Amino acid sequence: MIRAAILVATAVLAGCDTMPRIPNTPQVPPIPAHLATPCDIPQPPPEVLGDYDATDAWLLDALLPALADCALKVRGLQQAWPK
Known about the structure:
Elements: H1 2-17, H2 33-36, H3 52-80
């Protein structure tokens, strides 16, 4: 009986050695600091909401540059991610 138990234990231990191993998953590099900051989308000031010219100026001077900066950050994150 002991001999059979030793035989089974040896077979089990030998079988464990031939099992395929899970490959190590690659470590994702840390996000660069200039890309990790959240996008700063400005809120319109109250005086802009009633005047078309003021709204247009705010869109061109404040909102569009902020959205362009955010788009560059997103593109940078996509390019920095390992493929």
